[in-house]
């Protein structure tokens, strides 16, 4: 199923985020853990699945392919999708302000 | 250390039970059998020291697994083991505590999309094929509107069982498609695959069913061969007191009556005076006879010599309940030249069922006693009572 602009899975979002800097598979897992402050520890199966699917959908592309490993980077389309998702998430946070004050009532 | 001793284990064929397979491989490794290759119907293991291992099955969109994927998994402690169809097995020693391959079920759901489509497609093909085949078989079976006769004369038993086999494989195919669709939905909803799914009972049942099916299919394949060995056609002897069919000469009861000179021979059998025997699972004893004779010098109305003929069919059935449908079909098989209301049911103290037809010089008798059915079609001037008497005497030979 090609990406249709709807809400992204967490895995997609973080892979795109981590690929704002070109990176290769193994390093990517660490970058994701890093950008999420250790909250997201993505398994290699999930990562590989996301990478091959997003590559097919044109959200990311291979930069150079040396003999040993492939390096991925985000495409213009991918960045657009990432920013749209970011806006959506931000809007969600703003819409959830009511929860921020909720603690005081307890 | 070299692990060389190969062990082959029967394996179930439902590849789509991913969690069950993973836990089977892990349990085998715990007993010292390490998966090497998945074949049909055996999986190959190599013997080694028992070890706690984790196994994960990856489903890909193609038969191939890229070196990149293997490398990425290997860097995380997962070694590639083997592939079968779209399934790729990876393993990792439990004490390595390698990170779980899939941390996001919703993402994993995408990996079984191709498998899902493939299974759905093949199920549609299987169902269509099955309906076509069953339709064709049914058409052939009911072509002459004598389904019971077709059934007991042999060929239909094969078709029925083959049809059941088709139904069963369609069921398996449907089950696979539905289960994978369900698994995909569960993953989308965030429910991960159970890597420790219990497999023992299910796999054992599956293997037993598989063995039974193989035996049944083998037996079915033997039926036509067995039949060929049993079927034969011979020239009728002059008299046959021990054979369970009535004879033309007994009906005529005239010392001048002689059998017709053989008009044509085939395989050394006089086709005008022959009998055949046949075997089938539902009617282990079957005879079919045909004879012709005349009385030299007995001149008839139009100047021809008197001649008569007799055709009979005899069945010893596996189940007496088949007798009435068989008789009904035998009558149906003569429906071309006759009217149904000319067949009259009468009773006879020594028979379970007696139906007669008596018009002009054509006389027919349909009798059933126990598991035996006899049918005689006579053309000549002997009266129907004589035919019934002869039938009653002969049917005793085979009825139980």
Automatic annotation (TrEMBL), chain A:
Residues making up the signal peptide according to the UniProt record: none
SUPFAM superfamilies: Winged helix' DNA-binding domain
Pfam families tied to this protein: PadR
Residues in Transcription regulator PadR N-terminal domain copies: 20-83
PANTHER family with a match to the protein in the record: PADR-FAMILY TRANSCRIPTIONAL REGULATOR
Protein name, entry field: Helix-turn-helix transcriptional regulator
């Amino acid at each position: 199923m090609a990406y249709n602009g709807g809400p992204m899975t967490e895995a997609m979002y973080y892979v795109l985020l981590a690929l704002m800097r070109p990176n290769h598979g193994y390093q990517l897992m660490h970058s994701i853990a890093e950008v999420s402050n250790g909250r997201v520890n993505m398994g290699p199966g999930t990562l590989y699945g996301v990478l091959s699917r997003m590559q097919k959908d044109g959200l990311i592309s291979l930069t150079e392919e040396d003999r040993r490993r492939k390096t991925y980077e985000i495409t213009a389309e991918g960045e657009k999708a990432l920013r749209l998702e970011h806006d959506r998430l931000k809007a969600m946070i703003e819409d959830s302000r009511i929860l921020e004050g909720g603690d005081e009532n307890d | 250390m070299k692990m060389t001793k190969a062990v082959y284990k029967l394996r179930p064929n439902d590849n789509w039970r991913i969690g069950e397979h993973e836990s089977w491989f892990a349990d085998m490794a715990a007993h010292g059998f390490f998966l090497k290759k998945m074949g049909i119907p055996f999986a190959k293991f190599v013997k080694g020291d028992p070890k706690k291992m984790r196994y994960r099955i990856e489903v890909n969109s193609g038969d191939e697994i890229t070196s990149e994927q293997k490398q990425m998994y290997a860097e995380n402690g997962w070694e590639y083991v083997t592939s079968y169809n779209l399934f790729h097995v990876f393993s990792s020693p439990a004490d390595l505590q390698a990170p779980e391959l899939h941390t996001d079920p919703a993402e994993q759901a995408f990996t079984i999309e191709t498998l899902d489509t493939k299974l759905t497609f093949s199920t549609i093909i299987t169902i269509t094929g099955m309906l076509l085949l069953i339709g064709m078989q049914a058409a052939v079976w009911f072509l002459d509107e004598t389904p019971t006769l077709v059934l007991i004369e042999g060929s239909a038993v094969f078709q029925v069982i083959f049809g059941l086999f088709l139904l069963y494989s369609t069921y398996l195919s449907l089950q696979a498609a539905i289960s994978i669709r369900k698994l995909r939905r569960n993953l989308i909803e965030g429910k991960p695959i159970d890597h420790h799914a219990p497999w023992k009972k299910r796999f054992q049942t599956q293997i037993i069913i598989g063995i039974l099916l193989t035996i049944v299919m083998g037996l079915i394949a033997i039926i036509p061969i067995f039949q060929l060995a049993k079927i034969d056609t011979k020239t009728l002897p002059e008299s046959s007191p021990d054979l369970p069919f009535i004879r033309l000469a007994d009906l005529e009861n005239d010392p001048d009556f002689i059998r017709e000179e053989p008009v044509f021979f085939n395989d050394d059998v006089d086709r005008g005076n022959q009998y055949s025997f046949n075997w089938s699972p539902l009617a282990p004893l079957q005879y079919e006879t045909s004879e012709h004779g005349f009385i030299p010098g007995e001149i008839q109305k139009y100047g021809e010599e008197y001649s008569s003929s007799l055709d009979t069919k005899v069945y010893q059935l596996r189940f007496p309940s088949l007798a009435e449908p068989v008789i009904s079909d035998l009558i149906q098989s003569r429906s071309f030249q006759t009217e149904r209301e000319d067949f009259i049911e009468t009773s006879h103290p020594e028979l379970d069922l007696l139906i007669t037809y008596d018009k002009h010089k054509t006389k027919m008798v349909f009798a059933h006693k126990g598991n035996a059915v006899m049918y005689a079609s006579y053309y000549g001037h002997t009266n129907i009572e004589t035919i019934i008497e002869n039938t009653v005497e002969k049917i005793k030979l085979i009825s139980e």
